[in-house]
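REVIEWER CHECKLIST
Item 1: Sequence provided? yes
Item 2: Single chain? yes
Item 3: Sequence as submitted:
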Amino acid sequence: MHELGIATSIMGVVDKVAQEHDAARVGEVVVEVGLLAGVDRQSLEFCYGVITRGTRLEGSHLKVVEMKPRARCRSCRREYDVKIDDFRCPHCQSGEFDILTGSDISLKEVEVE
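Item 4: Structure as written out by the authors:
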């Protein structure tokens, strides 16, 4: 379950943000996760909730926003949203492409008080 490792990394960054802002409380934490990252959203949210218990982040809410993958066709050079069951270019049907986004995990927002 690599979601635990991801949740631990998120917690470390969020805790550092809280320290930098001398925050008494952390509210919502927004993370974007690409659909190709192989992360189970519910497992990540569960792990985050468990590991933040008893810390200054207890009670904060992890919101996971799933991001569609995008690719650029090597043949016609157009960008397109990738369908999980069909990576071919919808314009020219080429199977030659470069993934632009959708395999990454990004911390987007941390609400501190």
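Item 5: Key structural point noted by reviewer: The mean pLDDT is 95.
Item 6: Recommendation: ____
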